[in-house]
Amino acid sequence: MTKGDKITAVIIILISLTLFIGINATQINSGKNYASIQIDGKEVEKITLGQSSKKQYTYETEYGLNIIEVDNEKIHMHEADCDDQICVRQGYIENSGEMIVCLPNRFIVEIKNDKGNEFDAINY
């Protein structure tokens, strides 16, 4: 590798990092996130994220029991009575477009943005 090759590689890396940081900063800071709670395909509640205290919400339906926990701007499935427990093991979500799905209980938690800005391949 020549000196010119090394300089070119460093410049390309710096430009890539600058673009990556810039795109993520504009996506993250555009609008307020909320959690859309859906049971059997119907939205039943919107939970505003960004409040400082932990809070649990319990949903008991004919399909089963789900308890979600909101911690500031993050949310996770705290407890579910389904057999596989995939939704519980998924952990926290916090970015617009992320979802937790409990198929046996027909329960979905989806992070949405009040300005409609969601992560998408087109945005990149």
Features:
single chain, 124 residues, alpha+beta, mini-chromosome maintenance (MCM) complex, domain 2, 2 domains, 4-stranded antiparallel β-sheet, 3-stranded antiparallel β-sheet, 24% helix
Q: Could you give a short description of this structure?
A:
The protein has 124 residues and is of the alpha+beta class. The protein is built from 2 helices and 7 strands; from the N terminus they run αβββββαββ.
Q: How would you describe this protein?
A:
Residues 120-124 have low confidence and may be disordered. With 124 residues, this protein is α+β, with helices and mostly antiparallel strands. The protein folds into 2 domains: 1-30; 32-123, N-utilization substance G protein NusG, insert domain (mini-chromosome maintenance (MCM) complex, domain 2, Sandwich), CATH 2.60.320. It starts with a helix and ends in an 11-residue tail after the last strand. The protein has helices at 3-28, 86-89, and strands at residues 33-39, 42-48, 51-60, 65-72, 74-80, 99-102, 107-113.
